[in-house]
Specification:
Chains A, B: InterPro entries: CBS_dom, CBS_dom_sf, Mg_transptr_MgtE_intracell_dom, MgtE_N_sf, MgtE_transporter, SLC41_membr_dom, SLC41_membr_dom_sf. The structure is a homodimer. Chain A is mainly alpha-helical and about 450 residues long. Chain A has 21 helices and 6 strands. Chains A and B meet through helix 10, helix 11, helix 13, helix 14 and helix 15 of A and helix 10, helix 11, helix 13, helix 14 and helix 15 of B.
Chain lengths: ~450, ~450
């Protein structure tokens, strides 16, 4: 690594693959102008790591560079002992703010908000408000945004909001109570961050005030924080859909042991579930012994159920996460997925039928009863695909009804569920269709 | 539906499940105060639908309510004939803006930007700039944000940016060239929206200027547009990971035929791939006939490979989408996933070993050679899980190297790939371990 010529962009690019020593060296090699922006642009866990790796005497200016909500995030990422040390480095005022923020769950509105917003009084004039904003801008102390100012009453309750544009567009002698917007959308401090993101996205807001149970305003969540939330929640959902626990850190920064732990749990659970296929198969051992040809289609049939189930569960989970589908829609979805499943099953059944008959004509692969075998496979496919589609679409509803995250209804989970029932469907169809011939 | 008592929140809630007529009735039942916000809060495709469903004489005020970038989005969602009609309803100036925006791909920076931003000159004083902003605020014509103003030279090139806060904090007689930030991050007009989101998220920006190939500023993309982009891109990736084409519309608003089309393509392709398992199995037909017990573990073994592959591919695809992992990291990832795969394989192998030996002790399920069968299954599990993990992690690299979207390396795709090779591994291990006994 040539440290001399490193720009902040270069460092950002190679950051994930550097060792701790290299990171610190790279960090110190940046110019003074670059290093502040670079530090502010890091994720909270990277900031915590940089602080951890630098000599403790150097930490103070860096932690003080952060806004209170970002400093709180860094403290969340640090060990309890480090957290105490870091908080002690803050000035009195920031320390109180950070401690208040740390009392919230990291993924609640309260954990996401900044306590630094502009407060105005309803009986101020527009001119007085502009003067006040100007003083805030010139003061050293930073607020999260100057674009919106919140008009609070004596009990800190939100009476209205004015944007900088509203102030500029209004005559200077009007009262804020006359020019403010009174319909303010707020979120409670314990609202989950995913729901906050939903509110902000739905109403196209740039910021939303956070209020406590008595309606007092505690802070604001701005839309730029929401971008991170949306990305993070999507990552968690995607990882759960892939059949594992969500990683808490970027892939390359997750230790190999932590990663194996996150993956082994679900993999073992799915394996235990999948063992039922061995039991199901041994129940039909005699049939297989009599007609080995039946065994040949087992992977094809159960995977078709798994794949169609994976499609259905993925669609429903994402629609739930986006608020497009709620628990009350389940019956509509059963009907839709029943049609979809039957249609998809019929398509695969036709392909399967053609494949078996063509192979038989060309290579005589499947013996004297190939037509019946083709019929058994095709019929089973219709059943298995329809069943996979229905179970895949309903599993997220059941899991959510039980109070868990529907994203746990991962594609592998559905596939495992459908494998066992797929075998039962297949062998029962085969018993009926092949009775008196092979079985 | 009781239309009398409907609020905009209620309507928003039930919107996805309403018929076209109910939507229009609901829309008209809102009060004048509510209906504007409600319309502006709809997605572009819903706005297009509302416009389509209302009598054409009523459309003009609604399309004119939209910002040019939003009006362009609505036109994108309309049919070419409707598009012409809608554009004709705009005033001269907006029509030019919308036509310019429609020339860009919908998912490029140019298609996402607003052409309405505040332009300043470097030789203006701070006071003059504030007066100009105030006039902009009071003018009827709206700009996307007044918070940032862009300082352009005579060729419309970005020389700097000032925030409203900078202006307020600076003495009134200073020139903008002295107070502006000269390090402006810009994005090219043809940059993909996912990359624009990445730039905005990485640098924690509230807005980013879009420039053409000669560096002339064409518009700005603001962070609130990015929230929608991030959600939409995550949805597309999740649907592809579920083994289907991405839907273009919300689940409940997608017609049943369109949905079957989106799902049938991949499902059929996977089915054709999975047919290779029938060929692979028939290659080992003789072994199965001699030792039917081997067939019992086929679903267990191939699904373990599929599940571990699904985990690996999901992790890598998401890390790629977030820019945490690039093509050049492939060798690092092979090494990581090799260790992870061996460890996970060993865990499943131990569970499998215990299961077979315990069942044998309790029920004598697996006959005289149960120990060897257990050994064959366990050894195969190590091989299949390791192979599944490696192929699952490398497939996104291969697909991306070929120039396709790595998210197409869906969990079902990987499972299908691994199923065939899993069978080959299993039967070959069994041939070696059971030689001279069962086989």
């Amino acid at each position: 690594m040539s440290e001399e010529s490193l720009t902040d962009e270069d460092l950002r690019e190679i950051w994930p693959v550097l060792s701790a020593d290299e990171r610190l060296a790279g960090f110190h090699s940046l110019s003074r102008a670059e290093v502040h922006d670079f530090f502010l642009g890091l994720s909270a866990s990277d900031q915590a790591q940089v602080l951890r790796e630098m000599p403790s005497a150097e930490r103070r200016p860096w932690i003080r560079l952060l806004e209170p909500d970002d400093a709180a995030d860094v403290c969340q990422k640090a060990s309890p002992a480090e957290r105490e040390e870091l908080i002690a480095l803050l000035d009195e005022h920031a320390r109180r703010e950070v401690n208040a923020l740390l009392a919230y769950a990291e993924d609640a509105a309260g954990g996401l908000m900044s306590p630094r917003f502009v407060r105005l009084r309803p009986d101020m004039t527009v001119d007085a408000a502009i003067r006040y904003l100007r003083r805030q801008a010139q003061a050293q102390r930073r607020v999260e945004t100057l674009y919106y100012a919140y008009v609070l009453d004596g009990e800190q309750r939100v009476r209205g909001v004015v944007s900088f544009r509203d102030l500029f567009a209004s005559p200077g002698d009007r009262l804020l109570s006359e020019v403010m917007h009174e319909q303010v959308i707020t979120v409670p401090e314990d609202m989950d961050q995913e729901a906050v993101a939903e509110v902000i996205a739905r109403h196209d807001l740039n910021a939303v005030p956070v209020v406590d149970s008595e309606g007092r305003m505690k802070g604001i969540v701005t839309v730029d924080d929401i971008v991170d939330v949306v990305r993070q929640e999507a990552t968690e959902d995607i990882q759960k859909l892939g059949g594992m626990e969500a990683l808490d850190t970027p892939y390359l920064q997750t230790g190999i042991l932590a990663m194996i732990r996150k993956r082994a749990g679900w993999l073992s659970a799915l394996f235990l579930g999948e063992m039922l296929t061995a039991s199901a198969m041994s129940y039909y051992e005699e049939e297989i012994a009599r007609a080995v040809v039946l065994a040949l289609f087992v992977p094809l049939i159960i995977s078709s159920g798994g794949n169609s189930g994976s499609q259905a569960t993925t669609l429903i989970i994402r629609a739930m996460a986006l608020g497009e589908v709620g628990l009350r829609d389940w019956w509509r979805i059963v009907r839709r997925e029943l049609s979809a499943g039957l249609a998809l099953g019929a398509i695969l059944a036709s392909i399967g039928l053609v494949r078996i008959l063509v192979w038989q004509a060309l290579f005589h692969t499947y013996g004297a009863h190939s037509a019946r075998i083709a019929a058994a496979v095709s019929l089973s496919l219709v059943g298995v695909v329809t069943w996979g589609t229905i179970s895949g679409s309903m599993l997220p509803f059941i899991i959510r009804r039980l109070g868990f995250d529907p994203a746990s209804a991962s594609a592998p989970f559905v596939a495992t569920l459908v494998d066992v029932s797929g075998l039962v469907i297949y062998f029962n169809v085969a018993q009926v269709v092949l009775r008196g011939t092979l079985l």
